[in-house]
Amino acid sequence: MDTMGKRKKIIAVLGLLLVILGGWFYHQHQQAVQQAGAHELKLSGNVDVREVSLAFRQSDRIAELLVDAGDRVKKGQLLARLDTSELQLSRSKAAAQLASQQSAVDKLHNGSRSEEIRQAEAKVRSARASADYAAGVYARRQQIYDSVAGVSAQELDNARSQSEAANAQAAEAEQALSELQNGPRSEDVSQAEYSLKALEDELSRQDYLLSQYELRAPADGVIRDRLLEAGDMAGASSPVFKLSLLDKKWVRVYVKETELGKIYEGQSAEVYIDSQPDRPISGQIGYIASTAEFTPKTVQTDDLRTALVYEVRVYVDDPDQVLRLGMPATVRVAL
Fold this sequence. Notes:
The protein is of the alpha+beta class. The chain is built from 5 helices and 15 strands. It folds into 3 domains: 39-50 and 246-334, Efflux pump adaptor protein, beta barrel domain (Elongation Factor Tu (Ef-tu), domain 3), CATH 2.40.30; 51-83 and 210-244, CATH 2.40.50.100; 88-200.
């Protein structure tokens, strides 16, 4: 019995020592945690990224969608197309008009060909011969009419009219030859060139409109949502995709007024996420709100109570793209 009693006493003493030792270690741990907490500010928040709503400038039916939600895209990458059938017909018409006017301008600049000038000269000779013949007929009939009255007044008038008409045709042929020899007037050339420039501008406008029937990524990013499908009507007020940009990201946290003086813009920070608790992401405080607000319901803090807080953004570089919109994150700021 004495042996059993001694064993019980020894066990009781050892148990008491273990309790005391455990309490001492716990006390030391708590002191270490408190000391570490005094030199570090721990904040909880959520990841934010910039987003862009992508819509066509023109209004028409969607012909093709080339990406889906979750796809990573590069700046300038083609994402979707509208139906361009009607616009292609309009562009073809503008291109044909431009080609026709270009030929007219080239003809004015090149001037008349030698064959055209020789043909005009032949017409002048023929018209002048006809005028001389008509003038001779009129002269003979005038002579007969004056001397012997062998022709009527009506015949004399007809001969005079034919002579005047032949002279007019000869003058017209000579004028046409002179225009060919002198070349086009500068005013005509300018008018043709202005018409050509207007048609070139119209074709450029048609090409620009065609480019607006294609939707391209404005920057590198990830397609977050695909809002329309092929066959839907699209327009400036109907976004087709939501694009999350891959450049600067930040964690939105809120700091109590009592701790606001411990941080400053440009201060280094580390961001932790649940999926990588041992791999912090380097960040920097880039924005501190100048006015206070009440704690939003979505804010994650150790003491979820309504209080005045200040919004703080911790900007990070995320080359591995591990941060997602709305992801909870913990920010630690060394003090």
